[in-house]
Amino acid sequence: MSVKVRLTILGFWFGVLALFSFAVAPAAFSVLPSQGLAGAVVSRTLTVVEYTGMVVGLVLLGISAATSRHSKARLAEQLLLALMTLSMVVSYFIVSSRLHSIRSEMGDRLASLPPGDATRMTFDVMHQFSVGLTAFNMAATLILIGTLLWRRSAPRKEVSDRTEPLITP
User: Fold this and answer.
1) CA-based R_g, the chain, Å
2) What is the pLDDT of residues 35-67, one digit of tens each?
3) Residue (of 104, 8, 114, 107) closest to 60 by Cα position
4) What is the rounded CA–CA span in Å between residue 32 and residue 42?
5) How many CB atoms neighbour CB 3 within 10 A?
6) End-to-end alpha-carbon separation of the chain, Å?
7) Mean pLDDT estimate for the chain
8) Closest CA to 49 of 16, 93, 19, 26
9) CB of 10 within 8 A of CB of 60?
10) pLDDT in tens, 69-91
11) Which of 117, 119, 125, 120 is CA-nearest to residue 94?
């Protein structure tokens, strides 16, 4: 049962990330009249994504710990989940916080800054870092889903009754 629950939660999390990355953010920048307004919508939505990622990560870590069999595969799963959760913490408390600060300070002028401007360069680097954290979460989620499905479908080794002696004379 824990595998089905984890797969469901991971599928939900991947869907959240995909919807934000491939629908919400691009649509906001293509439909809204200014980049400042689109940035505000995306920033607000990203906050929900980041909080969701932190909760999903903690829930999955809890499930994994509660059903742990102390195997190398489970340890790798827990490490990946911890990194995913940490990446959402970093995204929210460091990266998005800095991006929000720059947007608040610059407003609509941010879009008109030349590419070599220090503020613009900082914003661009932080934005790319944010995109990288999201991409890492998407990749890690797919890896976990694939691993869980593979382990679930792998034939189980069954202990058989031995009919021959363990030591032969």
Assistant:
1) 22
2) 889 999 999 999 999 999 999 999 999 999 898
3) 8
4) 11
5) 13
6) 46
7) 91
8) 16
9) yes
10) 778 888 999 999 999 999 999 99
11) 125
- Report which residue type is found at 153: S
Q: How far apart are CA 135 and CA 156, in angstroms?
A: 33
Q: Are 60 and 8 in contact (CB under 8 A)?
A: no
Between CA 107 and CA 65 the distance in angstroms is: 45
d(CA 30, CA 142): 28
167 φ/ψ angles, rounded to the nearest 5 degrees = -115, 125
Cα torsion 91, 94, 100, 106 to 10°: value is: -130
Q: How far apart are CA 96 and CA 83, in angstroms?
A: 18
Hey, what long-range contacts does 131-135 have (CB within 8 A, 24 or more apart)?
Answer: 133/87, 133/88, 133/90, 133/91, 133/95, 134/17, 134/20, 134/21, 134/49, 134/91
- Angle at which helix 2-19 crosses helix 118-153, to 10 degrees, equals 150
Per-residue pLDDT at 163: 54
Which two structure tokens, joined as six digits, stand for 121?
């360069």
* H/E element, 42: helix 35-66
